[in-house]
């Protein structure tokens, strides 16, 4: 184990609390970013990687999917604090080799946190754990692939699952789904199932595409931007620059969130004089501290108010020409929104009538509105209805196909959107499958496969023999932690294609393989034709190349395309009809296949080599057309629904800390919220604490209730915090144990991470027992 890796794990007794910050970024963000880089990778590797991140000749940040400009000049420092942390984690010189696995048994590692495991460094060679073993031990690549082939060939395709993380590049994702379908299964769950699946489930039937309909430049030129259910200061910090530019162009911002996040309040751009020595830029013109799950009620109220304003001033609010030519269902929508119960709306949202009326006034005046959202809206039972209500508002004022207007689901992990474009989906559409059939000369499976939640059920029932994970940390990312971990242990073989240790490696199948792979920052040059590059798709459908330049920390690492190819060869042989070797040796071959299978990728190899890459077609944005089953955009009508906790309970949502991205912990400092050195905390309004009979810093056990059953997570510290009343927040994934696996969003089957009904009981230690 590298001497710089931490030896001590998290000590929750070290918890420190400070007042929450009222501004994001600033010089502190710069100093933290540099310190993390230097401590992990040293000065030379840090500087070299920072100069290349998100540049035309560099690599795409392995963090979020926020886009770079394709029309303007890019900054020499085209990254944020958390992007710098992600790069530091990947470019680290810490390594995990045979000595680490010999020193640490599975029993030892089971007690380690995600923070400790991920901090140990990059995995340097493939390792195996066989039945009866207490430790992982080295295995050759040849033997590892042979073992995978043996296990897959010993079972049936429907008992094999191929999970994917959003970090996976386009070319790898295409090969990976082709491998699974070549075997005969659509069991391709991915992290989209757990985050923005609700977005696709709402957008496809209403506007005919499951992606956002705006560009980065649209945000700059919008008259009004909503930022709903997201925390850009931590999760997409470069978004703050776009919002600042919008403000400078005269636009207004409405923030809607249960927590008063620093990034929604003020942005201190460390690359500007105002951000360094000035007061920064106030982001939110209006901040609505909404109750968790109250957004559907808010959007229905806004629709009602816009229609009422149109009655008072005909032709000033509703785009009747657009609605008449391009939409269906307006009459039913207008009838449903003609009446509003203000008492129930205020109860559902926690907002006053005056607050909602003020925001409706901004909407009525705006001729170009963008509504952005993230996981705060996608992880509740009524999420799909909530998002359809957003589309209703945008359709009402014709906010598609014009500058500064549209729908903007802000995707999380870099290339999570590209993976879906490449076919990582358990419910593939017939045109895509037919194109694969033509390209490769055999019939792909048509039966739908497992999504992430269905995979959990299958694991629990013992219906999975082989579970392969392309990146990610399924054990930590999924809901209902205890049941998920028990299910993973029933699998005959688990295979993890990873860069660093994580929890999923510890809650392994009967046989387990960990296969170390190159990361975004690493050079990929072990090919007959020399260095190779990959491509990604950002949150606004721009396809561009990514190519690392750092020397890998180990000579034993393989690229993801090579790993997929060798798994396929070991399982299917070389006479199956797919030339896996050719794709592994020259990624242009993969892109040629993609160009003939997926619309929008014609002449892929030439277009991806241009300076800014290329933008995929988007009918609502490009031509104001909608490829739904009726050929028009669709208004929808949903009943009012919101989350209410019974007496003595609160509605709990999970959130990330500032030192975290998905299941990766960069450190233990949630700087903007004033929480550091501990993670098992619950943020609760001080009036709720008093009403429930607790006080700040009480140690409690948390009990969630769903469908007559309970889930329990012990030893959390209550923190008085200015969240919306009736609500609480805890960190993901520590609170995942409280999410029953059947608590999901209807239609999308996304886990209800923002919908838990919880109560607290004093932990025994607090009572002195």
From TrEMBL:
Top-rank taxon, per record: Bacteria
Aminoacyl-tRNA synthetase keyword on record: no
Entry's family note: Belongs to the prokaryotic molybdopterin-containing oxidoreductase family.
A Pfam short name: Molybdopterin
Keywords for this protein: 4Fe-4S, Iron, Iron-sulfur, Metal-binding, Molybdenum, Oxidoreductase
Species whose genome carries this gene: Paenarthrobacter aromaticivorans
Molybdopterin oxidoreductase domain ranges (all copies): 122-495
InterPro entries assigned to the protein according to its UniProt record, in alphabetical order: MopB_CT_YdeP, MoPterin_dinucl-bd_dom, Mopterin_OxRdtase, Mopterin_OxRdtse_a_bac, Prok_molybdopt-oxidoreductase, YdeP_MopB
Molybdopterin dinucleotide-binding domain residues: 650-755
This protein's record includes keyword Lipid metabolism: no
Taxonomic classification: Bacteria, Bacillati, Actinomycetota, Actinomycetes, Micrococcales
Official protein name in the record: FdhF/YdeP family oxidoreductase
Cofactor: Mo-bis(molybdopterin guanine dinucleotide); [4Fe-4S] cluster
């Amino acid at each position: 184990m590298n001497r710089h890796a931490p030896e001590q794990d998290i000590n929750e007794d070290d918890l420190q609390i400070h007042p929450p910050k009222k501004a994001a970024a600033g010089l502190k963000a710069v100093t933290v970013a540099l310190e993390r880089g230097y401590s992990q990778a040293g000065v030379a590797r840090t500087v070299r990687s920072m100069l290349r991140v998100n540049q035309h000749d560099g690599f795409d940040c392995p963090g979020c999917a926020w886009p770079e400009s394709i029309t303007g000049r890019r900054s020499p420092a085209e990254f944020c604090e958390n992007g710098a942390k992600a790069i530091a984690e990947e470019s680290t010189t810490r390594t995990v080799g045979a000595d680490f696995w010999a020193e640490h048994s599975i029993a030892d590692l089971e007690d380690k946190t995600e923070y400790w495991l991920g901090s140990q460094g990059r995995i340097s060679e493939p390792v195996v754990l066989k039945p009866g073993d207490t430790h992982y031990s080295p295995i050759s690549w040849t033997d590892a692939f042979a073992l995978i082939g043996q296990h897959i060939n010993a079972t049936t395709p429907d008992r094999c699952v191929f999970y994917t993380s959003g970090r996976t590049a386009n070319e790898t994702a295409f090969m990976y789904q082709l491998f699974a379908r070549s075997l005969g299964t659509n069991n391709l769950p991915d992290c989209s199932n757990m985050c923005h699946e609700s977005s696709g489930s709402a957008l496809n039937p209403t506007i005919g595409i499951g992606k956002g309909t705006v560009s980065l430049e649209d945000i700059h030129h919008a008259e009004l931007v909503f930022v709903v259910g997201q925390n850009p200061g931590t999760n997409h910090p470069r978004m703050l620059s776009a919002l600042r530019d919008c403000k400078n162009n005269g636009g207004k911002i409405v923030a809607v969130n249960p927590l008063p996040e620093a990034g929604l309040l003020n942005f201190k751009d460390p690359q500007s004089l105002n951000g360094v020595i000035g007061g920064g830029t106030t982001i939110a013109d209006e901040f609505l501290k909404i109750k968790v799950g109250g957004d559907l009620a808010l959007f229905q109220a806004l629709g009602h108010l816009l229609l009422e304003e149109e009655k008072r001033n005909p032709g000033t609010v509703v785009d009747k020409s657009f609605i008449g030519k391009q939409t269906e269902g307006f009459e039913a929508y207008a009838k449903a929104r003609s009446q509003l119960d203000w008492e129930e709306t205020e109860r559902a949202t926690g907002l006053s009538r005056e607050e909602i009326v003020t925001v409706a006034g901004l909407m009525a005046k705006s001729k170009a509105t963008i509504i952005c959202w993230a996981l705060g809206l996608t992880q509740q039972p009524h999420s799909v209805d909530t998002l359809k209500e957003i589309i209703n508002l945008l359709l009402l004022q014709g906010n598609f196909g014009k500058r500064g207007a549209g729908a903007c689901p802000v995707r999380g992990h870099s290339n999570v959107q590209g993976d879906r474009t490449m076919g990582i989906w358990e419910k593939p559409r017939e045109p895509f499958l037919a194109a694969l059939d033509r390209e490769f000369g055999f019939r792909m499976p048509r039966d739908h496969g497992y999504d992430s939640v269905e995979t959990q059920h299958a694991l629990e029932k013992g219906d999975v023999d082989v579970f392969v994970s392309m990146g990610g940390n399924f054990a930590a990312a999924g809901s209902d932690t205890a049941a998920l971990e028990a299910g993973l242990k029933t699998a005959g073989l688990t295979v993890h294609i990873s860069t660093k240790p994580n929890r999923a490696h510890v809650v392994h199948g009967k046989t387990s393989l960990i296969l170390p792979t190159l990361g975004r920052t690493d050079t990929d040059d072990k090919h007959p034709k020399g260095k190779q590059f990959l491509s990604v798709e950002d949150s606004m459908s721009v396809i561009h190349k990514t190519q690392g330049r750092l020397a890998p920390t180990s000579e034993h690492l393989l690229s993801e395309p090579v790993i997929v190819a060798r798994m396929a060869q070991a399982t299917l042989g070389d006479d199956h009809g797919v030339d896996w070797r050719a794709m592994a040796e020259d990624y242009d071959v993969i892109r040629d296949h993609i160009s003939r299978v997926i619309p929008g990728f014609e002449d892929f190899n030439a277009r991806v080599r241009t300076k800014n890459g290329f933008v995929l077609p988007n009918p609502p944005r490009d031509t104001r057309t909608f490829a739904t089953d009726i050929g028009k955009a669709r208004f929808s009508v949903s009943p009012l629904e919101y989350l209410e906790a019974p007496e003595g309970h609160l509605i709990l949502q999970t959130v990330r800390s500032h030192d975290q991205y998905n299941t990766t912990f960069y450190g233990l400092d949630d700087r903007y919220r004033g929480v550091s050195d501990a993670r098992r905390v619950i943020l609760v309004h001080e009036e709720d604490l008093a009403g429930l009979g607790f006080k700040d810093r009480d140690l409690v056990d948390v009990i969630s209730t769903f469908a007559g059953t309970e889930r329990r997570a012990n030893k959390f510290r209550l923190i008085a915090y200015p969240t919306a009343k009736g609500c609480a927040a805890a960190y993901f994934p520590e609170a995942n144990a409280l999410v029953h696996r059947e608590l999901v969003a209807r239609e999308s089957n996304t886990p209800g991470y923002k919908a838990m009904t919880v109560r607290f009981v004093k932990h025994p230690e607090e009572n002195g027992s």
